[in-house]
Amino acid sequence: MNSPKVVSREEFTVARKKLLESEKELSHLRDRVNAERRALPMVEIDKDYVFDGPDGPLSLLDMFEGRKQLIVYHFMMPPGSDHLCPGCTMLSDNVGHLAHLHDRDTTFVAVARAPMAEITPVKENMGWTFPWYSSEGSDFNYDFHVSLDADVAPIEYNYRTAEELEAAGLDWMLTGPGDWHGLSVFLRRGKRVYHTYSTYARGTDLLNGTFNYLDLTPLGRQGDGFFSPSRTGKE
Questions:
Q1: Percent of the chain topping pLDDT 70
Q2: What is the rounded distance in angstroms from the CA atom of residue 227 to the CA atom of residue 182?
Q3: DSSP assignment, residue 68?
Q4: CB-side exposure of 171: number of CA atoms within 13 Å?
Q5: Distance (Å, rounded) from C-alpha 181 to C-alpha 193?
Q6: 3-state DSSP call for residue 138?
Q7: Are 185 and 71 spatial neighbours (Cβ–Cβ below 8 Å)?
Q8: Quick one: which of 154, 153, 148 has its CA closest to 172?
Q9: DSSP 8-state code for residue 123
Q10: Phi and psi at residue 110, in whole multiples of 5°?
């Protein structure tokens, strides 16, 4: 990996100020995109999903824990999985102190298709403290397009059909039924729940603090992990 060239402090300052303009442009664009995201219309959830947790069955409404907003991380862990997704694992390691979200009326949870008997030992071994529930036996993963099985539901990932994924060179995602990662956001009004947003692939980049720190360094992310641009391309 090539290192940056060595220059005088004056040359560095000129180059840095040029980059600063791009950084400001990106910040302003991010503000506009965030505003557009908040203005998205929403869809009421009319299906009674049943999940399993440490204390037994619960609903999507129960996951809010009485708060107004719910962020669900779709963890790649199907039933019987004998390994952990490296990208999901690193992202989960980067989940911060949830009190700051709770103070803003927002709950964060993870959901996977694996049963709680498989989730619980992984969670304990990794030292994760965020709530993690099982969607085994429900349509949740398929309805939110993180489990791909044409025998269960039409395939769609990152808002692309199977044909569009194949045309984009992502046919490796279609080699068989599989689980993928993503994130979905829900809003509660009384006992009614609404889906406001979902994102997939590199859309979850902002959740990974480690990679965002590394993006500030000359060596960058230093690898070909799931969240690396070299792996996911334009996704």
A1: 94
A2: 12
A3: S
A4: 4
A5: 22
A6: coil
A7: yes
A8: 148
A9: H
A10: -115, 150
Model confidence pLDDT, tens digit, residues 118-146:
999 999 999 999 999 999 999 999 999 99
Residue 92, helix vs strand vs coil: helix
- Between CA 197 and CA 166 the distance in angstroms is 25
CA atoms within 13 A on the CB side of 90: 16
Q: Using CA atoms, how far apart are residues 113 and 51, in angstroms rounded to an integer?
A: 9
DSSP state of 222: -
Residue 67 and residue 131 in contact, taking contact as beta carbons nearer than 8 Å:
no
Token look-up 């004998």 returns: 82
79: which 2 tokens? 């039933």
Q: How long, in residues, is the chain?
A: 235
Angle separating helix axes 116-126 and 86-93, nearest 10 degrees: 60
Please choose, from the candidates 169, 142, 200, 187, the residue with its C-alpha nearest in 3D space to the C-alpha of residue 45: 187
Q: What share of the chain is helix, strand, coil (3-state, %, to 5)?
A: 35, 20, 40
User: Which residues, in sequence order, are CB contacts of 209 under 8 Å at separation 6+?
Assistant: 94, 96
> 0.85 cut: is pTM over it?
yes
For residues 204-230, give the mean pLDDT: 80
Q: Which amino acid is at 160?
A: R
Can you count the helices (H) and strands (E) in the chain? Answer: 9, 12
The rounded distance, in Å, linking the Cα atoms of 233 and 227 is 10
Tens digits of residue pLDDT in 157-199: 999 999 999 999 988 888 766 899 999 999 999 999 999 999 9
User: Dihedrals φ, ψ of 160, to 5°?
Assistant: -125, 135
Which residue is associated with the tokens 């969240």? 227
